[in-house]
Specification:
Distance between the termini: 41 Å
Radius of gyration: 19 Å
Bound molecules: acetoacetyl-coenzyme A
CATH superfamily of the largest domain: NAD(P)-binding Rossmann-like Domain
Oligomer: single chain
Number of domains: 2
Largest sheet: 8 strands, mixed
Strand content: 5-15%
Structural class: alpha/beta
Length: 301
């Protein structure tokens, strides 16, 4: 693995990007740059990374030297890695970039395009998208006259929140993705200490094709006054053995992220099972994004 991927970059230092940086540094032991245009987001991510490593030392028996080595592997860099709006470029010897920016199609296609123009193959262009078509993202990486080589290194590498804790990576090849890219991305996911599943480039892949309608139904039950939020969540925790109920889980994922995913799925399929609940839209309009903003279906300190 180390012979194949020696340097990584993660673009976007929110909760997913930070988690991906943590497993890359600690488990895969790969040096990486963590990019974000916001100095505040970057500094919060570094503080969170340090507290996760300190927790591993205090509670999980991680030797201090290993925690220090993991911390040293992560370099925070302002910008999105492409020079857009200032900031440093992703290093030329980067073998894999994983973008973890907001789930907005135009932002992701724009970033993938700029990365493709600046970082030559065979560097992998990985995306942590939860719902956007990989084939569309690879299409945005298509460069004139390269025989499809650039699009062939785009692949979905979908982590789950909280990344340090959830043991899965969903791998999604685009129609254009090469077997070599797929094999290297799988090896990377496994080096990050994750079990890897694979899905075709179908709306919602495996996880969100099933999860998002379930979360949305929970919001609709609440909206209709069928039950309280506590009773909806307790039903899933105690009745189905889920670690948390659907409304608490939506808060954890981020209500803005849930809404974006549902909009992408609804637009792409036209299927009403993906139509976001009005209450979900209203809560996002109110700026209630869930755990990350301090308020969603529940309140967080
Ligand atoms: N980052 C790192 N570690 C975390 C964490 C975080 N944000 N939150 C909790 N943990 C760790 C805790 O430190 C604790 O570790 P130790 O046992 O070593 O102390 C462990 O997780 C358990 O935490 P808690 O005891 O505080 O709480 P819990 O037992 O209720 O577990 C949970 C919290 C891990 C989040 C658990 O409730 C859970 O698994 N929930 C379901 C999460 C889930 O379904 N995630 C997938 C969402 S879908 C997605 O992400 C993809 C998408 O595209 C939308």
């Amino acid at each position: 693995m180390a012979g194949i991927i020696k340097r990584a970059a993660v673009v976007g230092a929110g909760q997913m990007g930070l988690g991906i940086a943590y497993v890359t540094a600690l488990h895969a032991k790969i040096p990486l740059t963590l990019h974000d245009p916001s100095p505040q987001v970057l500094s919060k991510a570094v503080t969170h990374l340090e507290s996760l490593l300190a927790r591993d030392v205090a509670k999980r028996g991680l030797p201090q030297a290993e925690a220090d080595a993991a911390r040293e592997r992560v370099t925070a860099v302002k910008g999105d890695g492409t020079g857009e709006g200032g900031g440093d470029l992703v290093a030329a010897d980067t073998d894999i970039v994983i973008e973890a920016i907001p789930e907005i199609t135009s932002l992701k296609t724009g970033l993938v395009r700029r990365l493709a123009e600046r970082l030559p193959p065979p560097a992998i262009l990985g995306t942590n998208t939860s719902s956007i078509s990989l084939t569309k993202l690879a299409g945005s990486a298509t460069l004139a006259g390269d025989g499809g080589a650039s699009a062939a290194r785009v692949v979905g590498i979908h982590f789950f929140n909280p990344v340090p804790q959830m043991k899965l990576v969903e791998l999604i090849p685009a129609l254009q993705t090469s077997e070599e890219t797929l094999a290297r991305a799988r090896a990377f996911g496994e080096a990050c200490n994750k079990t890897v599943t694979q899905s075709a480039d179908s709306p919602g892949f495996i996880a969100n094709a099933i999860l998002m309608p379930m979360l949305n139904e929970a919001v609709m039950l609440l909206e209709k006054g069928v039950a309280t939020k506590e009773d909806i969540d307790t039903t899933f925790r105690l009745g189905m053995g889920h670690p948390m109920g659907p409304l608490a889980l939506a808060d954890l994922i981020g209500l803005d992220t849930c809404l974006s995913i549902q909009k992408v799925l609804h637009n792409e399929t036209g299927d009403t099972k993906y139509r976001p609940a009005t209450l979900l839209q209203r809560m996002v309009d109110a700026g209630w994004y869930g755990k990350k903003s301090g308020k969603g279906f529940y309140e967080y300190k």
